[in-house]
Amino acid sequence: MDGRSNVLLVAGPSGVGKTAxxxxxxxxxxxxxxxxxxxxxxxxxEHLHNSNSGLQYxxxxxxxxxxxxxxxxxxxxxxxxxxxQASVILLVDxxxxxNGRDVYGRLQRCLTLLVQLVRIPTAIVITNYDKDDSADLSxxxxxxxxxxxxxxxxxxxxxxxxxxxxxxxxxxxxCRKEQREVDAGSIELIAKASGGDVRHAxxxxxxxxxxxxxxxxxxxxxxxxNVRCMDDVFSLPFGxxxxxxxxxxxxxxxxxxxxSEHTIASVRDTFLLxxxxxxxxxxxxxPEVVLCQAHGQARTLSEFLHExxxxxxxxxxIDDAWLVASYLSDADFLLSSLNGHLxxxxxxENIIQSAAASVAARGVLFGxxxxxxxxxxxxRRPKLxxxxxxxxxxxxxxxxxxxDLYNSLTITDQIVMATEFRPSLKWLGFRASExxxxxxxxxxxxxxxxxxxxxxxxxxxxx
Amino acid sequence: MLWVDKYRPKTLDKVIVHQDVAQNLxxxxxxxDCPHLLFYGPxxxxxxxxxxxxxxxxxxxxxDKVKVENKIWKVDVSFSxxxxxxxxxxxxxxxxxxxxxxxxxxxxxxELNPSDAxxxxxxxxxEIIKEMAKNRPIDTKGKKGFKVLVLNxxxxxxxxxxxxxxxxxxxxxxxxxxxxxxxSSSKVTEAVRSRCLNVRINAPMExxxxxxxxxxxxxxxxxxxxxxxxxIAEKSNxxxxxxxxxxxxxxxxxxxxTNNQAIPPMDWEQYVSExxxxxxxxxxxxxxxxxxxxLYELLTNCIPPEIILKRLLFELLKxxxxxxxxxxxxxxxxxxxxMRLGQKSIFHxxxxxxxxxxxxxxxxxxxFG
Amino acid sequence: xxxxxxxxxxxxxxxxxKQVKDVAHQDEVVRVLTNTLETSNCPHMxxxxxxxxxxxxxxxxxAHQLFGPELYKSRVLELNASDDRGINVVRTKIKNFAAVAVxxxxxxxxxxxxxxxxxxxxxxxxxxxxxxxxxxxxxxxxxxxRFFFICNYISRIIEPLAxxxxxxxxxxxxxxxMGSRILHICKEEGLNLDSEALxxxxxxxxxxxxxxxxxxxxxxRLFGSSISAKDLISVSGVIPNEVVQAIFSACRSGNFDLANxxxxxxIAEGYPVSQMLSQLYDIVIDADDxxxxxxxxxxxxxxxxxxxxxxxxxxxLQLLNVxxxxxxxxxxxPQDMAF
Lengths: 463, 369, 339
Fold this sequence. Notes:
The complex is a heterotrimer of chains A (463), B (369) and C (339). With 463 residues, chain A is mainly alpha-helical.
């Protein structure tokens, strides 16, 4: 292991075979795997009960700390290995979940210690949940963690999501071995719906085979091509459909399919609207129903809509653009209105969330009064996320420069730094201002996410 | 060293602008009675300079020996948890949070930007004052002296933080004095304001800025042509710091100065004015999308969105017919308010741009057909 | 060496009346309370009224006159809003204090009735929960404690609490009363105050004696013993009339750029915009040549802008918006901003 530590970091999304790979390697080398098993999680009532009876609650993190401490002090000695002389691989699969800065710090210290001290081959498996929302604190923490462990000497292997073709192959093999008749269409469907998660695909397959006589609700080929009309697919019992159905909902809202004339004649008699407010009836379920399927991630939805909606407006319709923008502004306002309430009221939050989502969705539908004739658009991932990230990074950089760059007697405000000092320093030719190149920064962060970006585009194109 | 720092007046009697305020401050200190102070006024008007000079006046040259520290404060916070599956709230005791803050301190004073700490600001203020009160310097007669805490950007402190500030001000008034510094006094709560002596620092007039620039030129041995300093002053929008920075930039760019020398603009302002002319040229969703990209770039460079909006309005108003100005400024105010309440400033910035485009287009259509 | 600061006592404390009968201008209140003092029996009390009219002074004076300086510490608990005053504090602090029984023996010539007094200053800033919790506490300890609530807005005190108390309304002070009080202080402190300064002081403090005294002390600190009207204005944060008038006449002129320039000037001078709004409001209301409808339009805008400022909106944009709307209203332009 060429001077680096004995630790291998295995990172990747769930179900791409991280743990399986380790096991396979161990089998191949003929070594035993010793896995750090986590204690059973304690649920809250149990905790209450235990604390009454004097039992001390030990968090998973505490246990993990204890474990690392043992490794540090004694190495991995006999009682753990039950005397077996064979070489071992230590496998840490289930990292404690941490929330909050200080706890996270403890975990990081622990792991770094482990990386530096352990003498036997060790694999640490890290699952990236939901890498999408980069604004999330925990995601950033994980990224930081990976970097810090890497710099502590661990080797790193990244797993990418499994391609549709490989999943198809795997599924076909399984079918053959299990001697089940599953038609190619279903397999393809499952493979695509799994989002690169083999485990999920196999589970789906098994589920499908449980009901031998029921074909999956099979979309015919031509319907497959036309994603947006394909409601049924998403009700497939085995779809790994969270993000996909978000895209699906987005597609509906953005394309804004409407009837070409009023179907109900009596509309006029009952309720008179000014002409500019009249819209033809929607060719879809009520937006809230569609949102329901998209699991109502209001914030994400509004960001996606904001990123993409301008592509779907017709060339001249700047009034529409404003209308849409104003509704999105309303949605953001709603989403923020509960912020800052430390003790959260979950009921109220839920209502606000769905209200905001429906304002955003309906705003887009209503505002886009002259939708362009249907044509192909890739749905982009919000650029806002990268912008926020790099802006945060720039801010940190600015803070760190603040003290050593100007030996002034006062602390400079951040605004003044950004709007006055940095531009002037650029004129003055200070080296420190080279980081100002905005384009460089943005490009940089796009690269980081390019993989993911392509992926989401692919998904849509596939459909 | 930048000229801004190099020619910052060190003592109260050396200040060039705000001499009246300086005199009053001197009087205040000479009577040995220093209340809590609140300095307010626009950015670049000289609040900090006056505060530094005041500290020097009180403590002598030792106030200049400052060190910058990046300290992590351990703060105990009592908090309540909401177990939603139990649907009751319980007091879950205290936990310790770490708050990282940059402070600048001498033996007699500590300066910090509490708003850097985000929403944990209130804990920070209390904790720091407590600690300051604990290790007070002791003077020759064995009496305990007092320390000064300089808090910047008080207007950005949350309401809770300001609230806790007023209690702290009373509690520790024997051991420390607060000097608060804020851009607008509207955003400082009445309770805090009424406990301080309020000192308004107005932005220096253009003539005063010219005086300062000429003073610096003399010290640096530079020749400035007639009217050159006035042009810088005019561009600076009555912001002295900016004027001095620009002046130095001019010096680097071209010397000897010529009368028609271009005065280097702040790059982001340049950029905003490009955005404005983009908007004026074409009003379409496509153009709106391009504008969004440019706004993103400004945001990436930490230019605060409200400043972008204000500058954009400024640029647009320059080019507009007066009948549209009312409506446009009205919408600017509307969306800036929204931005303050919302989280994603780009949504609101963009809504403003879209609204402007829509207004302007219908104006063009109605005028020119 | 650190210079030693003599902490000068705020004049507000220094000149606080010590006796109920000295409390300025609140005749009815004083009459009732003097009666209370004689019989040395009192109900729970609720003092309400605008700030600086003597509510806290009265409460403290009663307590002092009932118990005298020696027993004061053990018999009176002062809680003000700056203390952490959640439910827990109310429960524990008050309970601990109220639980100790007291006897009634005259002490050093003070009546010393057999109860304790809890003064809750700024009671209207207490949460509803805390107020509800108090209700029980009041009943439980009603034998041994009396509560004095002090608040600005009686509407923020929950009804069950208010109904348990004798209510006293404090009126804003008139200019003469304030003037005599201020002159008294000036004499004691050796200050020179001309009549113009005196009337300015009364008008900028708007019936709030505490503010007036604070302004006076600040001015004395900054400008020495002879104080002019201008000094007082600069200390109080009130915007000079010329500046307000300049904005208003710019609005009348109907020239947007002129108004914009004035607004920029106000911001550069560092005047607080909220203050500007309230002073503009006075001018608009008093103007004879503006129709009621115009006034209504303008004031509506003021209200909106004020709310936005509270939310933390940008001062320049809000003031510009107000100026532009005022201009539109004055020249009877149609209102836009239609959705």
